[in-house]
Amino acid sequence: MRRRIIAAAVLVFSAGTLLAQSKWVQLGPDGKLVYTHSPQGDRIVDFSYAGYRGGGVALPSVKATKLVTPSGADDSAAIQAAIDEVSKLPITHGQHGAVVLAPGVFHCAKTLTIAASGVVLRGAGTDAKAGTTIELTGEPHLGIRVEGKLEVKKLSATNITDAYVPAGTMVIHVADASKIHAGDAVQIAKPVTPAWLKFMGMDTLERAGKDEKWVGVSELLTRRIVTNISGNALTLEVPLTDDIDTKFLGGTPATVSDVQVSGQIAEDGIESLRIVAPARAIALGKDPEFDGIAMKNAVDGWIRNLNLEDTTNSVGIDSGTERVTVAQVDVVQRVPVTTPAKPFDFSCNGTQILFDRVSGKGDEVFYMATQAREQGPVVVLHSKFAGNGHVQPHQRWSTGLLVDSSEALGGGIDLMNRGTMGSGHGWAIGWSVLWNNVAGDFVVQQPPGAANWSIGDRGPHSVKPQPTTGGPKGGPDLPSGIVESAGKPVEPASLYLQQLKDRLGPAAVKAIGY
Hints:
mainly beta
């Protein structure tokens, strides 16, 4: 594998080191951030909208409603019955209540499911002796599922009239805004056209015996809330993390649809417990898995203060999930999988998701990965990963990831083109930022017509070609992303926390524990 080193080896800076400033976003005279825009208006996204209730809101302490004690036998039915019972209680301040698991070991041979709003599953802490442990037993299965039933119904549609919608914007113009109102949810559709696929270099992915489709859909969708309408200009609650360029649409317009969204569950949490699976070597994709937690079609939820041990895929934030915080969750993988495919400690296919002070320990693993076709903001903040694994967006053009003040000393942090890896993942990520991280290696590549930034990161930066599988090796190195202040951290120390302070004030930063 060819590699050209751009940055120096990892350096250690004392507290008194004078910090540099980024040209793209820096502190102004008033102590607030000032942003540089590209000639077309693109900018580094305001990531502060990631997290529970849109960021800057303390996670609630929910009243204990039902206590379950371990039986020594299979406790799945007893815990599920308690969850179902609490799910039917009256709601107070958005909550039914908390199912509390007493200290001890609960043996669970079946998946525990939360399918109603306002339900919390809480243990007595993560200590192996004094806390609460859910031990996954029986046939391999998922430990805990939190899942609603999302339905999106289109009410009306209109075309976007902007010749170019820049990444990071909160304002778009439409042909007819008469059927859209402040407070409405809208769905923004960016057509996937042959011209755009060719421009991205994703029209020639080939692998013997495999159907390589890259994006695999006819349009990329994201939902936002409209906060204001002025003429035909719509102001969005949360910035867009992808651009829309009409010159690649071939006459197919990008659209905004007024939508009715239903079926997501809200205000659900999992907290203060351990989930332990049998430590075993498996062939990923072939052998059944003991997985940890999956959250889907849920809003304004949280997962906090957990330890997960030897779960194959540990914490998955799936589609239809918005405004969720995953905080102080530690994952340990003792036995690597035996296949080239790697499991995920944390994976994300939602929007406005904050991974705060999480950790992963193990080899041959993706510590954190975005999945296909998501728009952020998604933030990994003050997190630590130990082993030879990678923080790496995984597939099919997700946008709007910030990895902030985190470390992967034995592994890597990547914003890259994955080429024919997997099932043709191609360009995995765009319009994303690495800020003041430390890693054993960085791969930050520049997608056509987009940007990825590495700012204040300490560790070597590698330049590599697009990966190929089962075909000719080599090829030209892909262009590097925007690398600033390599080897020297910049101010502010945390981009996310400064953005949050700018938008909501110091109390918002304090509310999330900083």
